[in-house]
Design a protein that fits this description.
0% strand; mainly alpha; 128 residues; 50% helix; single chain; elongated
Amino acid sequence: MYDGTFGTDWEALSREEAVDRAFALGVAAGIDSEPPAEFDRIVNAVPGGYDRSLVELAYDEGRTRALEAAAEADDPEAVWDALVDAAGTPRTPPVGSALPGAITELSLSKRPREGPPSSLGLPEMLRK
């Protein structure tokens, strides 16, 4: 199922692609059809420890959801279709529910706050 949706002949992945693939690979692992060594390739495709942690978390989330869904359904294909759409996108955010909002949102895409940071403000005892 994973091979049919994604294939394993990729060269490079963005962080979002890696997270989606890791989630789908976790789903495949939960229903016993994981391609060998693909997880290591995905983890090594993203730079930095933070991105690698997101990929690992997405994999774990996909595997957990697949194991929970497999307990209720007999057909692995039905579990796959319930968790991953035909384009390979997770039907629900793979790591959104597992991380606090402050971590999942990129601070670079937000406008800077107006005024000085609160950490640079004077403490009450120094104000007159």
